[in-house]
Amino acid sequence: MNKVFLIGRLARDPELRYTAAGTPVGKFTLAVDRNFQNANGERETDFIDVVVWRQLAETCANHLAKGRLVAVAGRLQIRSYDAQDGQRRRVAEVVAEEVKFLDKRKAALDAEEEEVEDSVF
Questions:
Q1: Domain locations in the chain?
Q2: Which CATH code fits 4-120?
Q3: Are 90 and 98 contacting, i.e. CB atoms less than 8 angstroms apart?
Q4: How far apart are CA 109 and CA 89, in angstroms?
Protein backbone atom coordinates (compact mmCIF):
# COMPACT_ATOMS: atom_id res chain seq x y z
CA MET A 1 0.00 0.00 0.00
CA ASN A 2 1.36 3.46 -0.91
CA LYS A 3 -0.69 6.25 0.70
CA VAL A 4 0.52 9.58 2.08
CA PHE A 5 -1.42 12.19 4.09
CA LEU A 6 0.12 15.60 4.79
CA ILE A 7 -1.02 18.88 6.29
CA GLY A 8 1.15 21.93 5.83
CA ARG A 9 1.62 25.34 4.27
CA LEU A 10 2.80 26.12 0.77
CA ALA A 11 6.43 27.24 0.82
CA ARG A 12 5.97 29.12 -2.48
CA ASP A 13 3.34 29.72 -5.14
CA PRO A 14 2.40 26.66 -7.25
CA GLU A 15 3.92 26.26 -10.71
CA LEU A 16 1.67 25.20 -13.60
CA ARG A 17 3.01 23.72 -16.82
CA TYR A 18 1.67 21.60 -19.64
CA THR A 19 3.04 18.38 -21.09
CA ALA A 20 3.70 18.11 -24.84
CA ALA A 21 0.26 16.49 -25.11
CA GLY A 22 -1.34 19.47 -23.36
CA THR A 23 -1.98 17.83 -19.97
CA PRO A 24 -1.74 20.29 -17.05
CA VAL A 25 0.82 19.43 -14.38
CA GLY A 26 1.49 21.50 -11.29
CA LYS A 27 4.12 21.47 -8.57
CA PHE A 28 4.37 23.05 -5.15
CA THR A 29 6.40 22.55 -2.01
CA LEU A 30 4.64 21.84 1.26
CA ALA A 31 6.23 22.87 4.57
CA VAL A 32 5.25 20.29 7.20
CA ASP A 33 6.24 20.71 10.85
CA ARG A 34 7.52 17.67 12.71
CA ASN A 35 5.64 16.55 15.83
CA PHE A 36 8.68 16.77 18.10
CA GLN A 37 11.34 19.28 19.08
CA ASN A 38 15.07 18.98 18.41
CA ALA A 39 17.81 19.21 21.07
CA ASN A 40 17.52 23.02 21.03
CA GLY A 41 13.78 22.87 21.79
CA GLU A 42 12.79 23.95 18.26
CA ARG A 43 10.45 22.25 15.85
CA GLU A 44 11.98 21.29 12.53
CA THR A 45 10.17 21.50 9.22
CA ASP A 46 10.26 19.15 6.23
CA PHE A 47 9.83 20.62 2.76
CA ILE A 48 8.02 18.07 0.60
CA ASP A 49 7.56 18.36 -3.16
CA VAL A 50 4.00 17.72 -4.36
CA VAL A 51 2.89 17.07 -7.96
CA VAL A 52 -0.71 17.54 -9.13
CA TRP A 53 -2.17 16.61 -12.52
CA ARG A 54 -5.01 17.68 -14.83
CA GLN A 55 -7.91 19.69 -13.37
CA LEU A 56 -6.48 19.49 -9.86
CA ALA A 57 -3.27 21.15 -11.13
CA GLU A 58 -5.23 24.04 -12.64
CA THR A 59 -7.38 24.43 -9.51
CA CYS A 60 -4.31 24.56 -7.27
CA ALA A 61 -2.54 27.05 -9.54
CA ASN A 62 -5.61 29.32 -9.63
CA HIS A 63 -6.52 29.22 -5.93
CA LEU A 64 -3.38 28.53 -3.90
CA ALA A 65 -0.46 30.77 -2.99
CA LYS A 66 2.50 30.78 -0.66
CA GLY A 67 1.43 30.38 2.98
CA ARG A 68 -1.92 28.68 2.33
CA LEU A 69 -2.76 25.74 4.61
CA VAL A 70 -3.70 22.54 2.75
CA ALA A 71 -4.19 18.83 3.30
CA VAL A 72 -2.78 16.51 0.64
CA ALA A 73 -3.62 12.84 0.08
CA GLY A 74 -1.68 10.88 -2.50
CA ARG A 75 1.14 8.44 -3.10
CA LEU A 76 4.90 8.62 -2.71
CA GLN A 77 6.80 8.41 -5.99
CA ILE A 78 10.55 7.97 -6.40
CA ARG A 79 11.90 8.82 -9.84
CA SER A 80 15.37 9.32 -11.27
CA TYR A 81 16.79 11.52 -13.99
CA ASP A 82 20.15 12.53 -15.49
CA ALA A 83 21.26 15.97 -14.29
CA GLN A 84 23.10 18.47 -16.49
CA ASP A 85 26.39 17.50 -14.85
CA GLY A 86 25.88 13.88 -16.00
CA GLN A 87 25.05 12.54 -12.54
CA ARG A 88 22.06 10.28 -11.99
CA ARG A 89 19.68 11.90 -9.43
CA ARG A 90 16.75 10.49 -7.48
CA VAL A 91 13.76 12.56 -6.43
CA ALA A 92 11.07 11.71 -3.89
CA GLU A 93 7.75 13.50 -4.36
CA VAL A 94 4.11 13.08 -3.46
CA VAL A 95 1.70 12.69 -6.37
CA ALA A 96 -1.50 14.22 -5.00
CA GLU A 97 -4.87 12.62 -5.62
CA GLU A 98 -6.69 15.11 -3.37
CA VAL A 99 -5.88 18.61 -2.13
CA LYS A 100 -8.17 20.21 0.45
CA PHE A 101 -7.93 23.92 1.17
CA LEU A 102 -7.94 24.37 4.94
CA ASP A 103 -7.91 28.15 5.23
CA LYS A 104 -9.57 31.05 3.49
CA ARG A 105 -8.12 32.90 0.54
CA LYS A 106 -6.20 36.08 1.38
CA ALA A 107 -8.76 38.25 -0.42
CA ALA A 108 -11.55 36.78 1.69
CA LEU A 109 -9.51 37.31 4.85
CA ASP A 110 -8.78 40.92 3.90
CA ALA A 111 -12.50 41.56 3.25
CA GLU A 112 -13.39 40.12 6.66
CA GLU A 113 -10.79 42.33 8.35
CA GLU A 114 -12.28 45.40 6.63
CA GLU A 115 -15.78 44.42 7.82
CA VAL A 116 -14.52 44.05 11.39
CA GLU A 117 -12.75 47.43 11.24
CA ASP A 118 -15.88 49.08 9.79
CA SER A 119 -18.09 47.64 12.51
CA VAL A 120 -15.72 48.70 15.30
CA PHE A 121 -15.56 52.36 14.28
A1: 4-120
A2: 2.40.50.140
A3: no
A4: 41
